[in-house]
Amino acid sequence: MPDKNCGGAALSAYLYIAKMRILTSLAYRFEVFVSVGSNLVLMLATVFLWKAAYKGVDVVNGLNENQMITYAIVSVLLSSLFQCDVQNIINNRIREGEIAIDFMRPVNLFGCYLGEDAGSAVSSLVNRMLPLLVISLLFFRMVTPSHAVSWVLFMVSCVFSFGILWLLSALIGLTAFWVMELGNMGIVKDTIVRIFSGSLVPLWFFPEGVQNVSRYLPFQYTYQTPLGIFIGRLDTAQALQAMLVQGIWIGVLLLLLHWVWSRARKNVLVQGG
Amino acid sequence: MLSFVRHHVSVAGCFARLAIQRQLEYPLFLVSWFLMIPTQYFAGIWMLKIIVDRFQPLNGWSFEQLAFVYGLGLLSHGLQVIFFIQTWNIEGMVIRGGFDRMLLRPMNVFFQFVVNYVNFIGMIDLIPGSIIFLYACSKVGFAWTLPNILKLLAVILGGMLIRAAIYTITGSIAFWTKASRSMVGLVGQLFERTGMYPLSIYPVMVQMLLTFLVPVGFISFYPACEFLKQDDRFVLPLGLAIWTPVVGVLMFSVAHAIFKLGLSRYESAGS
């Protein structure tokens, strides 16, 4: 933990955790290499699926083929960054009884967990996203945001997306305080997010009814919002509006996390040891 | 010969009973599988439906036909997950020295290794598989004649063998490198993304790779071409469906040979 900055701002502790995380993930080169391969398979499969769908068709729902291919590629790129491990971390800490040690630390637990995930995201930027980006730029014609404002909006909204995904993951992780073992609930959540975030198929193509419900759920603001900004489907005004909703969701989920956490602390049962 | 088979069956039966008892220990885990697997696969087929509805049949494959390929692929996946899930874990066995006790017993190690764990949770995979496949069959007017049923069984079992063989070959890398789990994950991703869709949506290069190098195409695409009389632009003698079990048995023997070769380099765990 923080060695020389002990008395300093608590923030440096979290940054230290993030830094360690970056260094650890850079150490596992083979794992990273294979995970790039795995994401590449996913990316190529979706791109060719869309190419087949667009055969002889120009525009569907206001989107042309290049836009849709860009959407699919950037979606995989983002998913290689947005790896929120917090649900597994909490689950493992509880199963191994290590949560007791975490409680004794003089730092905010969620700060530490966020530090870990933010660290992995930063290292993924270099060793997971970059190779995929290079490959896709070589082989596919992608559209890019037309002006600087869209680039900025895109990046800010990506950060918001990460926030929402991370909070959802943390909330699922906390349920382990009650059920002791999450099992595959994390994967169930991931599947639901994958569908309703528009990361595979944009919600614009979904049946009307589903779209109407989805507007009131946090999921579509995780992938579809930044991707929509990137391919120019959302103009500046629409983008700002969507980002406001992202902000509201972050607020709501933060409050929820705070509430669940205060109840979970009373429910700690330390196993083993 | 008969007593040889009877002996193996009884050993496998004992292992299966133990495995089932082990899996029933955690009922909550079972519930989470029941939620997870059907959600995943019904979601996958739903995405296909949305794309076909908004756009058009993919390369001439209507939604019902796509569901046929998807369901067929999922059935062989389910069987593989029930009977050959161990092949995902060769790395763990190599690192922890798990083959030690099997080498001491007078029986084929690969056989012991495979039957060591019958994953009956895999039956949950067969639920969405059968629902989607039977739905597709009724829509495309699949004729349930005796030759067709026999062909179908051979295709599903062949697909299971192809999947198991590719996992075994990939997992056996661990005998040389001590690490293969992430490679096994990559193969899983490949099966998930290409084993349940028409290969013809991919460029010819990729189709060739998925036919001759990693024969994923035989799992469900080529047999579906024959069953659905789809124009497949790829002609093999004797009809396409019959090749699935042939390729399956062939791949499986290759996998067994590679596993044995790897096992000869097995050096047990360190401490």
Key terms for this structure?
heterodimer; A: 273 residues; mainly alpha; 12 helices; 1% strand; B: 271 residues
Model description:
The complex is a heterodimer of chains A (273) and B (271). Chain A has 273 residues and is mainly α. Chain A has helices at residues 11-27, 29-53, 65-81, 86-96, 99-104, 109-139, 148-174, 176-179, 185-196, 208-214, 224-230, 236-265, and strands at 59-60, 63-64. Chain A has a two-stranded antiparallel sheet. In chain A, strand 1 and strand 2 (63-64) form a beta hairpin. Chain A is globular. Chain B is mostly helical. In chain B, 71% of the residues lie in helices and 0% in strands. The mean pLDDT of chain B is 88. The interface between A and B is large, with 38 and 35 residues.
Shape of chain A: globular
Neighbour order of strands in the largest sheet of chain A: 1-2
Q: Calculate Rg of chain A over CA atoms.
A: 20 Å
- Rg from Cα of chain B: 19 Å
Whole-number mean pLDDT of chain A:
86
Weakly predicted, low-confidence segments of chain A: 1-7
Strand content of chain A: under 5%
Helix content of chain A: over 70%
**DSSP strand tally of chain A:** 2
Count of extended strands of chain B: 0
Oligomer type = heterodimer
Tally of contiguous helical segments of chain A? 12
Report how far the terminal alpha carbons of chain B are from each other: 40 Å
Based on secondary structure, the structural category of chain B is mainly alpha
Can you describe this structure in just a few lines?
The complex is a heterodimer of chains A (273) and B (271). Chain A has 273 residues and is mainly alpha-helical.
